[in-house]
Every structure is written in structure tokens, then in C-alpha cells.
Amino acid sequence: MTDFPKKLGAALLKAQGELRGVTKDGTNPHFKSKYASLENVTDTIRPVLQKHGVLFMQAPGSVNEHGIMALETIFVHAESGESFGSVIGVPLGKKDPQGVGSAITYACRYSLMALLGLPPVDDDGEGAKQPPPP
């Protein structure tokens, strides 16, 4: 990797210091599991990134002959114009508009979480229990 943009890096460092995790607010009935929705991810990160002058953009790309769709995520430091991005490939579950939409949502969610080092956290179970009295 080349030198990381300094002003963008400083702003992301501050943002990461404030971001703790994203609650799993969605339920997948097929797998009987919970996940952090894209809406919850963006609602969690957007105010913190904006506070530090960082915006993000995401754009789906083409689908290759193997049914892998590209998605690019870019972070931009508004003041300096410095940017950093990453492209990931996501297999399409179905090769129709619904499959593409699902792949885009999935890729957007996990790309943002990975690039920001943002873990999903449970909002139930052990985390929701009251601590025992001292």
C-alpha cells in the first residue's frame, strides 16, 4: 500500500475512537439469525464521520462472468479532498434485480463495517443483562 492520506487518516482515527459497534437490529428468518442492517450501520457511522469531516460513497460495479458483482466504497476527507477506497466482490445469489439488490445491500453493509473496524454487537443476551449489585 502507498502512503495513506494523512488528513483523512487523522479524521478516521478520531472517528474510530468514537465508534464502538453496531447493534444487530435485523432478523434473517431463513437462517434464524440476527444482523446489523445497512440502515443501522449508516445511522451509526454517518454522524461520527461527518463530525470529523469524512464522507463515504458506495457504488456497485459490473457483474463478471462468474456472477460476482463489484462494489466500491470510498471515504473522502471533505476539507483536503484526500480519499481512500476499496473494492470487494460479492457473488449474486440470484441473477435478477432482487438478487442484485440483496448483494448491493450486503456488500455495502459489510464493506463499511470492515473498513471502519466496526464489529456487530448483540443487543440482547449477556449485553442486555443488568450488572449484579456490588
Q: Low-confidence spans: pLDDT under 50, at least 5 residues? A: 125-134
Overall body shape: flat
- Please, what is the average pLDDT? 89
What does the main sheet amount to? 3 strands, antiparallel
Fraction in helix: 25-40%
What's a quick, concise take on this entry?
This protein is an alpha+beta fold.
Description:
By secondary structure, the chain is of the alpha+beta class. 35% of the residues lie in helices and 29% in strands. β2 and β3 form a beta hairpin. α1 packs across α2. It starts with 5 loop residues before the first helix and ends in a 13-residue tail after the last strand. The C terminus is likely disordered.
Task: Based on the model shown, name its key terms.
two-stranded parallel ribbon, 3 helices, 134 residues, 7 strands
Strand and helix layout:
Elements: H1 6-18, E1 22-23, E2 26-28, E3 33-35, H2 38-51, E4 54-63, E5 68-77, E6 83-91, H3 97-116, E7 120-121
Parallel strand pairs: 1-7
Antiparallel strand pairs: 2-3, 4-5, 5-6
Helix pairs in contact: 1-2
